[in-house]
Amino acid sequence: MNMTWIALIIGLIMLIMAFAAIYAKKLAVAIIAAGVVSLLASILYLTLAAPDVAMTEAAIGSGLSTIIFFYAINKIRKQSHD
Amino acid sequence: MEIFQLEYITLITGGLLVLTGLWGIISQKNLIRMVIGFSLFDTGLHVIMISIGYIRNGTAPILDKAVDKVNAAGQIVDPLPQALVLTAIVIGLGVTALMLAYVVRLHKEKGSLNITNFKDLKW
Amino acid sequence: MSIIAKLLWVLLGLFIILNWGLLMGALIRKIVARVGKRVGIRWYQPWLSLPMLYSTRSSISHGVMYYLGPVFRLSGGVGIFLFMPLIVGSPYFDNFSFAGDVVVILYFQFFGMLGMALGAGEGGHPYSTIGISRGLAQFTTVEVPLTLAVISLAIQYDTLSIKEIAAAQQGGITNWTLFTNPLATAAALLSMLGIFRHAPFNLVQAPNEIPIGPPTEYHGTYLGVLRTNGAILHVIEAVLFMNLFFGGAGNWIELIIKTFFIYFFTVFIGVVFPRFRIEQSVVWFLKVPLVLGILAILFMAI
Amino acid sequence: MIKKLIYILVLVGAGIIMAQLFAGFSGSTELSETARYYVESGPEETGAANLVTAVIVTYRGLDTLGEVTILFTVAAIIAFFMKTREQRDKPKRRVSEILTTGARILVPGTMLFGAYIFINGHLSPGGGFQGGAIIASGFALMLLAFPQANLSHKTIRWVESISGFSFVIIGVLGIFMAGGFLDNSILPLGNFGSLFSAGAIPIIYIFIGLKVGAELSNVVGHMHEKQKEI
Amino acid sequence: MVTPIFIIATGLGLAFALGFIPKKHINLTGILSFLGLAFMTFISGQWLFSYLGNNELSQFIFTAGARPPFAIALKMGQAEAMITLLINVVGLLSAVFLYDKLKQIGRNAFIIYLVLIMALNVIVMTRDLFNLFVFLEITSIATAGLMLLDSNLKTLSAGFKYLLATSLIAGVFLIGTIFIYSFGGSLFIDDLTAIGMAPLKAVSVAVFLLMISIILELKPFPANGWGLDVYQTANPGISSVISGGTATAMLFALYKIMPLSTMQSYDILIWVGLITFLGSNLMGLKQSDARRLLGYSSIGQIGLMISIIGMKPYIQFDIQIILLAILITHLMAKAGFFWLTGIVGNTDISKWGMIRKHPEMLFLMGTFVFALIGFPPFPSFFGKWQLIMELSSSGHFLWIGLILLGSLIEAVYLFRWLGYAIKKETATQSSIDIRPHKTLPTIIFAVFLYGVGYLASFWFPMGGSINWLPLAFIAILFALDFLPAWIKNIISIAGLSYYAYQIIPEQEGLYLIFAFIFLIGGILTLIPGFTNKGKRIGFYPVAMMMFVGMGMLIEAQSMLEFFFGWELMTAGSYFLIIRGHRSMPHALSYMLFSLGGAYLIFAAFGIAFAGSGNFLMSGLSTMGGLGGIAYTLLAIGFMTKTASLGLHIWLPGAHAEAESDVSPMVSAILLKAGVLGLIITFMAMGGPNNEYTTLPYVLGWLGAITALVGNLAAAFQEDAKRLLAYSSIGQLGYILFALAMMTHLGWLTGIGYSLSHFAYKAILFMGIGAVVLRLKTHNMFEMGGMIKKMPFTFIAVLMGIITLAGIPPLIGFAGKWLFYNAIIEKGWYFQGTIIFFAGIIAFLYCFRILYAVFLGQLKDEHRNVKEAPIWYLIPQYLLLLSIMIFSAKPEWIFQPLGSMLAPIFPQGQLVWNEGGTAFSDIGYWNGSWVMYIIGIMFVMIFAWLFIQNRKPKKVKQFNIVYAGEKPERPETTHMAYNMYSGYNKALGFITANGITTFWNWISEHVTAMGDSLRKIYSGNGQTYVFHIILFVIIVYLFSNGGF
To answer: ipTM of this predicted complex?
Structure first.
């Protein structure tokens, strides 16, 4: 079935991205990778017939969350410059 | 049982994400990466939950013209896990934000993001 | 027997014992002197010195307890005498032995010792304390074999009454505890050496040093009292051993002979052996005599 | 190295435990009794077409209240962190023209979109959280474009307080006027499928949307301000 | 009735609404918050009230107009009402405590605080798993926020670790929840229990995850480093909420979800809980930070409660009541204690001496320590009691052992701490923060503890029969502590007299003897207290506590009452002992040995309950098949009080360092409680022909050796009171030996000895105590010549010594005489010989104390010493009078004693003839005659000397034959130091301190073990997370026996 294949591929990418998020050299990359994992998760939710959750994940998990992460590392970077 | 089903794939993906997240939390010394690990862990959990609520070939639990009230029961997926996940996502965001705020403050205090440097309390 | 009659008989017994004690003391000293190639005292010397001491005019006191020390001491000696039956089967010379058995006697020994110790203590002379502490220390282990022996006898004769123990040994020399229970006798005899405090167990008095302490402090009448007690005590202790181990005495002659030899035995040993230090003597009593005592009990109990 | 090995072993252990859980799961083909109830009685009881919304706002309204509380608390705590320092920022960061212009157009749009989502929460996918999140994103965008924007904490706080308080009040009204705490039938259920239906759900969802939006904005704002200080 | 929804509505609504209030009106914010908390408290209180008395069914509160499982339902039953009430009370009081702090931080602090308390309430009430998850998260976030009330690096890192750990735990919970939903189709706990899920492996794993995550929230050892950090660094007000509120709510959550799981899971709880209890307390041993220490203690106690939840299947009694009793105690005491650390402000426990400046604070601390350990009258006493009884009747002795061991270890550090507070000198001058809003909550909880203790006694079988009147009397004495000492002394004596008047006439047999010793003895030993000027703060209540405890031993019909009295007595005596100058370490070891002993007794009572099925003291004679063990435990337990060899090391210090008038109390009287216990044990064993022959035999040897070692050690002491203390050990050895003979004569000896020991030891300790009081030293070589200055004391002491030594004619000899007869009759010759040897050794110290204190040379600095105070002499002479009377007429005491013993030991009684001669099978003795003969003879000889001697000249002190010299100084001629050096050389090895070394070795190694164990808390938050995962896996492996 198509859906299943899509899910499988997305799942694999998610895992790769997850490892990237952990092992990426630069924090920014790591954060973006984590955001991508969330984004892919929201696609999975769509395939699983959960549009509400998908929206939420997209808006919160990959959107806001990433923003907050960035704010945080930004802030940290500035702290260490001083 | 047949493994090659949508919900199984997603379930296992979720499970592996959870483990990956845990791995991130316990293996990375960088506080930010630990928080990233936690958010992966969280995402994995949510994927698992949604997979659990999936009904094979079901549609979204929204009644409209395609899904009418009478036949809905046979067509849609379980709305409850979705509701739970909604809540859980928001909670996860809250926790992540709080953790990050802590991380920023910790860094401010000690100028380091390495968790091994925060061992002032022990024994 | 009326109480008055009883008292008279007791006083008579006391009189005999006292005099025999004085004589025995003199004889022993004489013998010891002769062994040492000296002349020694005259046999009647004690009868001379005792009145002399009692009639000394000047005397001092360090305080009440000092004063009472000799009283305690003599009470101790006379008390043992009072609780001791002297002649087997004689209702006249069993004193007040009805008031208590051998246990009373064993424990009453301490009465005089303690009183004397306290009296000397109040004198404030350092040597008194040294002597007393040594005496008490040695005495603790001396008593152990004796206790064992007494227990052995109690098992053997099924009684603690001295009268009955002595009575049970009548009817021939083979009935003496000496032969029926030689182990207990041996243990007791060894412990007797300590009780009489002759050499080798005389560090307590340390004849060369200690006597400048209490015996000098206790002078005159006090010393008289102490001498009186010494005479009584030596005999009466010997009587105790006689009653327990040597068949008791059927009459006064027997008593005199037996006590003489019992006492002489201790002196004889003392002449032969050198003096022990206090920790040596303490340990010594816990070796051979103790083992003998234990064997004596095992022998009787099984 | 050994340490890593131990970690891996432990995670394998955790994986095995999880696998045993998964092994018991045998893909469902029909709804559980609970879910069936939601499908069968949900529309009648709540009047909401979006069953997820019905569950979230009504049946499990208490969870939602808790969730809102979490955001609220987090915002308050992050405000704590701010407490100790009140310095003003020094350097002004130059923001590109494109961004400011884009933001001028985008921000109001995003906000409106967010509002739309939570107002229609009972009918279509989305609701208070999503809407709130979108509003907060718009807010974040605005901060990005106008770092100096003097955002009014007071306004945000008022929005937050009013919406939260109203949520609780509506919930309490449910006790007196309907079946229980957070029962949405204190208002007429209306016409199934229309905007003004599903009793108090839209109202609650609006408050949730406002509140979440305000709280998230608050969080973002605080993070932002923290960034500004130093 | 206000529906409990309003707890949520109030908490949240208020939290949201506080946003309306402008910043400057912070006081309004505060007041509103308090009102909110108060209202929440009121709601739960009101519900609890409605459940009291009438067994109403618990009520479900539905939300959203739908029934569960479709909507979330809350439950408000009796348990929920109780628990929420407790949480809200802690919340309210903690808020009072924190008021200035919250105000300083501002509105948000109040908001978060309100949210936290509200969330805890919901955790208790909710019946929905996911709802539970949400509120768990709220709790952990709010806690992480409140950590920042004191914002520094430590709180930050602790808060982060906490957040990380709890979020992870919540994740585990969430996995469990969703799978439960998948398998059970519901999230409603009652539904899930009712339908019973399929017995699949996966189901059990899901339930396991739920359970383990709640357990993890409760900070099980060793996955709890994050929890400890929080306890240590959080503001004490917050720590108290965490320990009192959060933990309580989590415990209830655990209790709530347990029905989902299988029987096997209950065992997990038990073991996890017990290991936590033990491990945590063990690690606390070396902790010196007050708050972290309390953290260890909290975690330990919570572990205990976890295990109790797990014991539910094994316990017939309502487990909720047991839990509640322990929970309330822990909650109030721990919260109070945390507040106290906030009041004192120094977190180094060795610096807590400063609390002494405020006796009322010290009182609070004492209350909390004793409550935590489970002393009466606190509720946990009853809870633990019932728990041990129940476990015993289901045969789980290992658990009992672990629980008692853990409690003992906890006692070690808590009492060490208390000791520091009471006694340790401290240089720091930091002041204590006693503003009312800090102290008030603490005081309230302390008062509650007593009140709830009273109520709790009625929850348990037999608890209602406890006589609370004397305890009320003690409470009144505490309240009257501001009065001068002499008034309190009068009150105490009056009270004790009334108590004696109530009790003694009802007693018969041996109990009468001991009632007499305890109560009349108490009155006599209180008399010297009149010499005290000033207030003597804290003395009278604790003294009464001890005497009342002993009175309760007499009164006790049930084992519960007995144990109640026993513990009360221990507590009282501990405080009495620690009052002495250098008593701190001795009081601690006293307490520990006493507690250890008490726990053994406790365990034995448990066995008795298992055997007999009831709590009556008579149950002790039906032990089931475990009699041998039970009686051994009892004997060892009681021997800790009688200080038998091996268990005696506490005694010398404790008795010697105690105050002058306390020593006689604890020596002459308190020790007899142990004797009473032994007598009860032996009687329960079934009299002379019982089946347990080994135990008495062993005890006989032990008694003999104790007597020897005790007496020998006494002879070598330089400290007068230590000498007497060791002598007590020896004398109690005699008594043990005598009782162990299990014959008529043996018991006659033992009980006779108990009586005479009471009399002469009281005399001696009062006499020597008076000397110490006058000379301000304990060292005998610094004394001397006191006969001139304190003649009346000397006479009393002399008579006491003569009695002690057993020299005829005084009554002490009766003991010796009986011994000979009893030993020969029994056939215990060698033990007997040791006893006699010991008896003779007694002369060494008898002489030593008389000589070194009263005789010899008077020291220059003591020339102006006065006779002992009259209040010391009165009781001494009263006792002396009784000694004299009974010495002259021993049959007056021994004949009735014999007839009391006749029912138990009909064989081998003494025969008394009309003249007062006692006949045994082998010997005879007439006390009166011996007395008359010796008395008359003594007088006659005295008269003879007096007549002969006429008037001796009194000489001055140094006028001795000293080689013609006058001694330089009195010291050089007072040969009191190292008096028996030769003897020491010969036999000193017997007293070599092998036993002390042994106990030191034990304590060192246990401490070292705890110390190395706690190294796992590396301070690294990541490691803690790893611990959590590992913990889950290991517990899983254990519970499944593999994957």
So the answer is: 0.86
